[in-house]
Amino acid sequence: MSLHVVVGAGPTGSAVARLLADSGQRVRVVSRRGNGPDHPLVERVAIDAAAGRLVETLEGATTLFNCAMPPYDRWPAEWPPLAAALLNAAERTGADYIMLGNTYGYGLVDGPVTETLPMAATTVKGRVRAQMWTDALAAHEAGRVRVTEVRASDYLGAGAASLFTLLVVPEVLAGRPVSYLGDLDAAHSWSHTWDVARTLVAVSRHDAAFGRAWHVPSTSDLPVRQLTARLAEVAGAPAPTLSAMPDQELERLGETDSIMAEIPEMRYLYQRPHVLDSTRTEQEFGLKPTPLDDVLAETISLGTAR
């Protein structure tokens, strides 16, 4: 029975752990608070992965899943030491290293976003993510560790924390007007938490997956306006009143919310179409996204992360 270590006990990390455990694999979930799924094959360990004991915790494991997520407003300070510790632990123990990433490292993209695009980040957080992948890929190419990365877009589903789940979902369910940043009619990819976990597990099981990145099949590419209308229909809520958030309102929110203060530099993702091409993932692993209405029903019934 193989042992897998999952760092991060949020919605995606917990889903990865449950998928592995349900298939009969031993799982060790590492987080600062010792959280994780309640399952007989899941061991929960409370440590700070960036501070030590990670190599010891990883001994005997075949794979290391990086599903960690430092606070959004502290990425430049907290991601580099954590990423370095995870990569070092994988190298020292021989575990395969599977990273959960996003699309920030690509920067501004015209047309569909494919995995073959170079890292061309234009923001602080984008450069953090790009450097994590660059460092890991260099270690892979040097033969020190096997590395792959799964990249997702904005999240939907149980426990998902995205601008849509935080700003739109509660207002629609309460029948209140909604304000959202960006072009409300620009196509945008949406990733289901469970589909992200399924993709992470799938790539971990294929030798050909390593040394390259993979995109999660999107549950939808609907623009925000259409997605919001569909959310209301699934919820049985009144037809929503949706408007574009003025820049001044976004800046005002950032004055009292350190997370919202980080959003302006990522605004470009919502001002133009942002569509992930997951053709390669779907063909290689036979993965298909969860139907949108099922994802929205789950989002409504089980709530969002706070």
From TrEMBL:
<dbReference type="InterPro" id="IPR036291">
    <property type="entry name" value="NAD(P)-bd_dom_sf"/>
</dbReference>
<dbReference type="Pfam" id="PF01370">
    <property type="entry name" value="Epimerase"/>
</dbReference>
<feature type="domain" description="NAD-dependent epimerase/dehydratase">
    <location>
        <begin position="6"/>
        <end position="208"/>
    </location>
</feature>
<dbReference type="InterPro" id="IPR001509">
    <property type="entry name" value="Epimerase_deHydtase"/>
</dbReference>
<protein>
    <submittedName>
        <fullName>Nucleoside-diphosphate-sugar epimerase</fullName>
    </submittedName>
</protein>
